[in-house]
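Protocol step 6 of 9: fold each sequence in the batch and record its structure tokens directly after the sequence line. For illustration, a two-sequence batch is reproduced in full.

Sequence one:
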Amino acid sequence: MTIRIPFLNRLLPFVALLALLSGCATLRAAPPEIALVGLQVENLTLSHAILTADLSVFNPNDFSINVREVRYQLAVNNIQVAQGLSLDSVRLGARQYGQLPLRLSTSYFNLLRLGPLLEQSKPLPYKISGDVILGRFLLGSRSLPFSKKGTLDLSSITDEPVEANTTP
């Protein structure tokens, strides 16, 4: 009988770990839905324009998720405008919306490339893509890609938010 107890003591943690890992595997999160909902000028420097963008984030899952970070690239009319990381994290309940602010820094060169298009006063196509990092800590985090297209009306860029329309 003393031979079986050490064997069970070694087997029990292994079985518990397997049960835990299989439970986590069933809770695979669907990627959050990302949309650009606004863009505004925050500051102008000698070499760059600093913009603030608002991302709408929707959790389509039946359980809460932690959006730790968003890594993104923003292109307007196929011109790379900005890339970077989100400033904040957000916890979203099941089927809940949230917003993440992004700080964008773009060179005047990129804005000059958009200049002729801005004079036309037509909405411009945009594409925002990247990765959403889920989880609270580095261990156990998961990276999910996203990509969203839409249009921006940049004809009146001021300190007021610019509206964005999205398409699936």
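Sequence two, same batch, same settings:
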Amino acid sequence: MPSRILKEFKEFAIKGNMIDLAIGVIIGGAFGKVVTSIVNDLVMPPVGLLLGKVNFTDLYIRLDDKPSSTLAEAKAAGAATFNYGLFLSTLLDFLIVSFVIFIAVKQINRFRRKEEAKPDPKENMKECPECLSEIPKKASRCKYCTAVLEAPAAERA
């Protein structure tokens, strides 16, 4: 039993599935960092400016009654905080990443449907009885050896 599982794992790893998965995870992590930077460095500052010069990283509620002017100051004091500004930034990250993944999957599925819709080119072919070349099923003469072929049954009727 363990040798069978080991054999299946070896086939899985050799086929490239594990490598494809690792590459996907690495690219996904890098993409997540880029989106986080876009949100934190490019999107949130103008939104904060439009909302009255609000810095979203400093939006928090301190859960005790002691005052502090910044989130860093509250954390340094060891206070419990409700960081809704950071949550909004993370939520925006998630929405952007999930939208991009949605568009990518939609595009991939569209390409797959096009590939599945293509008819098999050999489906409309037959073999010449004289020279054994592939010719269209509707042909009445072989284009290679010019042998006269029997007309398909549908055309004889």
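Proceed to step 7 once all outputs are recorded. Observation for sequence two: The chain has two domains: 2-118, 121-157.
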